[in-house]
Amino acid sequence: MSLCPRISLKPEVTEYLKSVFLNKEVLAAVGHQEAESRFQKLLTCLTHPPSYTCVRASTHLASLDEIKHKLGEELRNQQMCSSSAEQVSLQILPHPQIPDVLLLPVYGPRSVKQLVSEVVVGAQCGSAVLRGAHVFAPGIIASPKYMKAGDVVSVFSDLEGKCTRGATSFQGKRVFVGNGVAEMDRSSIFCKNEPPKGIGVRMVEPLYQSPPFDGVLPNLVFLQNLPSVVAGHVLGPRPGERILDMCAAPGGKTCHIAALMGDQGEVVALDRIRNKIDRINQNAQILNLRSIKAFHFNSTRAVSTDPTQKTEGPPFPPESFDRVLLDAPCSGLGQRPNMANTWSLKEICSYQPLQRKLFHAAVRLLKRGGVLVYSTCTVTLAENEEQVAWALDTFPCLRLQPQEPHIGAEGMLGAGLSPEQLRLLQRFRPELSWDETEMTAPLPCRASRDTIGFFIAKFLKN
Fold first, then answer.
1. Which positions in this protein are listed as binding S-adenosyl-L-methionine (predicted)?
2. Which residues of 149-184 are buried (b: 16+ CB within 10 A; e: fewer)?
């Protein structure tokens, strides 16, 4: 059994996405055969990790060369202590265009022999394994009846969420992700008294080989998808500005904004989930960033109706911020690797109204002459280009702006935007270069194309 050739979706969701990627504008531009080919490549590439691991370096604390050297030493030490049956050559390369990004090649899919003893994990856990993680005990759904610590097992991901927790075997729709060594007995994993903690299976022969980053130089490197790093640069924060990150958890982009400002100014981070605020503050503390102020608050209500309000936190008076990042909640259909999504079409389509509420608040909170960056990690038109068309029609004060850097593709046809407007947008489309990324092109050449699916729009408020 090889890696899942296509992402597992509900049939209604597959048909919806097909209608997006084979819309009338696309068909008129490239023809039915090319449009269909791109759509099928998208469904396939989503189940595979990008061909590199992207690490954002804390260049506000040390130079990129120094961080690269320390990271190399740390990973070599980790490799020497590893029980992995196979060692791979360690490469760390700077991104050719993004000054605070380091790239590490991912090797795979590799030829790994499946074993008789099998462990089944959830789809989310399986996706993490494909990106270099070990199997943590809470992710284990089924294991052999007499599994003991030290047993060598094959790990499979349950694609449809149908495996019963505590089962001893599972024959449903699943996919092989590699072999590992059990770190815990079955009785400890499925103990009824308390939830299990720690590593349940240490991967020694993963299908995709990449270094695990758990606890590696936490103050100097931050695991982050390349398009997310690009979004921070596109926002263009400057020292002394006041910047709002509207949907900030877990704080990767928040911390990047503060670092790009040299920690001079104020970065306000909002999130509607209380326990995620602690995560933002922890990341800020680890990265030695003092300009971040995080608040538990629903950003749709972040505009104050009281012009005399003087409190430090939300809600804020209109036109309080020089720049606003709206990295909006979305359907997340661009995430890779993602072997399965069990959401209904109703759930997939539920984000557009929320995104528009957030957009209204963002525009009101932005100063005249300020910059608004809107981004998502999904591939639909409704959450991306259609939102841009709606925003330009709804807010006459907004104008699309060029993006720097612009390393992704232009916007996708289908929302009625002009060619000039589409060129100002940035859509990361791994399906456009999927054949090429499976070849042996040098890593820096393919790094900007073999990404997660992502979208960025930059506006100026006149």
1. 247-253, 271, 327
2. eebebbbbbbbeeebeeeeeebeebbbbbbbbbbbb
Pairing of β 292-296 and β 118-122: unpaired
Strands 93-94 and 52-57: unpaired
The number of beta carbons lying within 10 Å of the beta carbon of residue 406 is 18
Return the closest-CA partner of residue 94 out of 184, 204, 193, 229.
Answer: 229
In this prediction the pTM is: 0.94
Annotated binding site: 247-253, 271, 327
Sequence-ordered list of residues with C-beta below 8 angstroms from that of 418, at least 6 positions apart, any chain: none
Environment class of 144 (CB within 10 Å of its CB; exposed 0-12, middle 13-18, buried 19+): middle
What domains, with CATH codes, occur in the chain?
52-105 (no CATH), 118-206 (2.30.130.10), 225-461 (3.40.50.150)
- How far apart (Å, rounded) are the C-alpha atoms in residues 122 and 136? 11
Which pairing describes strands 101-105 and 93-94: parallel, antiparallel, or unpaired? antiparallel
pLDDT per residue as tens, the chain (462 positions): 345 678 989 999 999 999 999 999 999 999 999 999 999 999 999 999 998 999 999 999 999 999 999 999 999 887 777 655 455 668 899 999 999 999 999 988 889 999 999 999 998 899 999 988 899 999 999 999 999 999 999 999 998 889 999 999 999 989 999 999 999 999 999 987 788 889 999 999 999 988 877 788 989 999 999 999 999 999 999 999 999 999 999 999 999 999 999 999 999 999 999 889 999 999 999 999 999 999 999 999 999 988 777 778 999 999 999 999 999 999 999 999 998 898 999 999 999 999 999 999 999 999 999 999 999 999 999 999 999 999 999 999 999 999 999 999 999 999 999 999 999 999 999 999 887 555 566 777 788 999 999 999 999 999
Let me know if 397 is a catalytic residue: no
Contact present, 408 and 428 (Cβ < 8 Å)? yes
Question: Could you tell me which residues are annotated as the binding site for S-adenosyl-L-methionine?
Answer: 247-253, 271, 327
Catalytic-role residue among 125, 377, 397, 445: 377
Residue 162 DSSP SS3: coil
Q: Give me the amino acid identity at 174.
A: R
Please state, in angstroms and as integers, the Cα–Cα distance from residue 328 to each residue in 311, 322, 363, following that order.
Answer: 26, 19, 14
